[in-house]
């Protein structure tokens, strides 16, 4: 039995596929995809069987193939070219999946930071347990350098796409004990454990965690409070203090800036 074809106008065919009919007119004009029939009224009609071909074209277009590339392939379809296209596009899709996963990770991290901001109080200090983390670090003394010099050095070490993960600063606890609060040792940004770049492992364990709202000028005074807190709880500060901005992407004034300070602490009795 012969299959009976269904003739569809441009408007009908476009509606079935969720397209603007101008798109079909354009494809017809450039010779990429044209109606099968021309009626006595000079109207042009699509066969319903052309749906498969159109969706195939749309799939290739979604794979970022240009109109020229699609047209060349459809004019001379063959197995070798299709396999070549498939291999190329699978690699591109893999890259896009990794990019989207990283974007998702960043959004989840930023959301978690903001949720934390809504739960803490200014100058609050806690004792918490942390798992180990991995950082990309730039170690240098930048107390006397201006901001342009600092960012010039950052660009030599990190890709700009790493900036969105957030950049923090670190300072040794020895300097904190000496009240050299402005003498930072460098900058860091979060990194995956299997990063190809040189990474630093921030050890897990007990940390003193403090939250300060306001301009950085108030941090030295807050560090004094953290030192007093450690002494009160018989804890020894060790390693580095890690400063991270939690809400810099949602504020318009430095007075609203929330800095999280993390310092590993050991029990003096151990």
Automatic annotation (TrEMBL):
<dbReference type="InterPro" id="IPR009061">
    <property type="entry name" value="DNA-bd_dom_put_sf"/>
</dbReference>
<dbReference type="InterPro" id="IPR000551">
    <property type="entry name" value="MerR-type_HTH_dom"/>
</dbReference>
<feature type="domain" description="HTH merR-type">
    <location>
        <begin position="7"/>
        <end position="76"/>
    </location>
</feature>
<keyword id="KW-0805">Transcription regulation</keyword>
<dbReference type="GO" id="GO:0003700">
    <property type="term" value="F:DNA-binding transcription factor activity"/>
</dbReference>
<dbReference type="Pfam" id="PF06445">
    <property type="entry name" value="GyrI-like"/>
</dbReference>
<keyword id="KW-0238">DNA-binding</keyword>
<dbReference type="InterPro" id="IPR029442">
    <property type="entry name" value="GyrI-like"/>
</dbReference>
<protein>
    <submittedName>
        <fullName>Multidrug-efflux transporter 2 regulator</fullName>
    </submittedName>
</protein>
<dbReference type="Pfam" id="PF13411">
    <property type="entry name" value="MerR_1"/>
</dbReference>
<dbReference type="GO" id="GO:0003677">
    <property type="term" value="F:DNA binding"/>
</dbReference>
<keyword id="KW-0804">Transcription</keyword>
<dbReference type="InterPro" id="IPR047057">
    <property type="entry name" value="MerR_fam"/>
</dbReference>
<keyword id="KW-0678">Repressor</keyword>
<dbReference type="InterPro" id="IPR011256">
    <property type="entry name" value="Reg_factor_effector_dom_sf"/>
</dbReference>
């Amino acid at each position: 039995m012969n299959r009976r074809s269904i003739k569809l106008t441009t408007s009908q065919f476009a509606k079935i596929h969720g397209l603007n009919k101008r798109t079909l007119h354009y494809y017809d004009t450039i010779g990429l995809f044209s109606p099968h029939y021309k009626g006595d009224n000079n109207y042009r009609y699509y066969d319903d069987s052309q749906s498969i071909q159109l969706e195939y074209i749309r799939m290739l277009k979604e794979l970022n193939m240009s109109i020229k590339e699609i047209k060349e392939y459809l004019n001379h379809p063959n197995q070798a070219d299709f396999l070549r296209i498939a291999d190329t596009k699978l690699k591109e899709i893999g890259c896009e999946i990794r990019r989207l996963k990283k974007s998702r990770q960043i959004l989840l991290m930023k959301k978690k930071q903001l949720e934390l901001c809504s739960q803490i109080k200014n100058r609050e200090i806690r004792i918490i347990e942390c798992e180990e983390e991995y950082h990309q670090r730039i170690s240098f003394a930048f107390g006397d350098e201006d901001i342009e010099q600092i960012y010039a050095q950052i660009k030599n070490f990190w890709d700009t796409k790493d900036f969105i993960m957030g950049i923090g600063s670190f300072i040794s606890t020895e300097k904190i004990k000496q009240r050299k609060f402005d003498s930072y040792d460098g900058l860091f940004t979060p990194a995956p454990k299997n990063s190809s770049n040189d990474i630093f492992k921030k050890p897990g364990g007990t940390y003193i965690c403090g939250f300060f709202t306001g301009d950085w000028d108030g941090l030295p005074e807050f560090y004094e409070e953290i030192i007093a807190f450690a002494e009160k709880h018989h804890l020894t500060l060790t390693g580095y203090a890690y400063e991270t901005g939690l809400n810099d992407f949602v504020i318009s004034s430095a007075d609203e800036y929330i800095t999280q300070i993390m310092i590993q602490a050991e029990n003096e009795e151990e």
